[in-house]
């Protein structure tokens, strides 16, 4: 969410009515999240000036660990230098820390492509935004889910109950520090996640949703402490329920 919102902001800066705007003091502290969108808190160090040049050798974009040769345009300006500077700063301050983590395994190669392409400045901001929107579409639509055996048939459905909230086993990247609360596309995906975790004996699809509209599933290691809830459904592993009274 943070990286996508940042790229949308950089897309606007690259195509603003004033021209391509560069953020000269590009630091994480200069941004804040407002209603799920990243905003710049200080525009004092923004500029529309692009580096003047006479030849391509005048257009090297330097960073502490990398340098990029750019082209000198016919009008004597380094082509796209403001856009590329913003994008590489987004890569080194945000993408490298956020993109490698938390995504479903099937989506990680797409995010690695974005990371590598922006780190080498092979993508401009237009291509980067398109790549992020593709990943978002795959994530929201569930199209990233590979064909796999149906696992939900191995679970007993207990309607009208939920488990008392409390501490349970932890997992990454959980939305709760008390237990294992993950975003899922469907109950079938939740069953696959539960099967992959040795501690998991049951799960509940909660009424809570993420910014993409996906529900949160709570995974549990215990079958105890069930309480009535007309809107809830508990999915219990058949292997866990065998020999036990529900």
UniProtKB/TrEMBL annotation:
Q: Name one GO cellular component term.
A: extracellular region
According to the record, the signal peptide region is 1-19
- Give the UniProt record's GO annotations in the biological process aspect: skeletal system development
Q: Which InterPro entries match?
A: FAM69_kinase_dom, PKDCC
Q: Which residues form a coiled coil?
A: none
Q: Which UniProt keywords apply?
A: Kinase, Signal, Transferase
Q: Which GO terms describe its molecular function?
A: non-membrane spanning protein tyrosine kinase activity
FAM69 protein-kinase domain segment(s): 2-116
PANTHER family for the chain:
PROTEIN KINASE DOMAIN-CONTAINING PROTEIN
Q: What is this protein called?
A: Protein kinase domain-containing protein, cytoplasmic
Q: Which organism is it from?
A: Charadrius vociferus (Killdeer)
């Amino acid at each position: 969410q943070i990286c996508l919102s940042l790229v949308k902001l950089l897309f606007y800066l690259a195509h603003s009515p004033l021209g391509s705007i560069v953020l000269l003091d590009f630091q994480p502290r200069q941004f804040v999240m407002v209603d799920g969108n990243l905003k710049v808190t200080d525009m004092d160090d923004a500029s529309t000036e692009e580096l003047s040049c006479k030849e391509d050798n005048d257009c090297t974009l330097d960073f502490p660990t990398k340098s990029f040769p750019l082209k000198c345009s016919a009008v004597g300006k380094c082509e796209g230098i403001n856009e590329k500077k913003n994008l590489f700063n987004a890569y080194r301050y945000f993408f490298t820390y956020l993109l490698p983590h938390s995504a479903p395994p099937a989506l990680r190669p797409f995010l690695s492509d974005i990371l590598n392409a922006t780190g080498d400045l092979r993508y401009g901001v237009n291509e980067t935004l398109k790549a992020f929107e593709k990943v978002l579409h795959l994530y929201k639509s569930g199209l990233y889910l590979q064909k796999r055996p149906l696992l939900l048939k191995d679970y007993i459905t207990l309607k009208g109950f939920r488990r008392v909230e409390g501490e349970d086993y932890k997992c990454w990247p959980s939305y709760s520090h008390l237990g294992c609360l993950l975003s899922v596309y469907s109950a079938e995906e939740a069953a696959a996640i539960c099967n992959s975790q040795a501690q998991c004996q049951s799960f509940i699809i909660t009424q809570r949703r993420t910014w993409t509209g996906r529900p949160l599933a709570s995974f549990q290691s215990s079958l105890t402490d069930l309480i009535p809830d007309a809107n809830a459904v508990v999915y219990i592993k058949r292997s866990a329920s065998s020999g036990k009274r529900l």
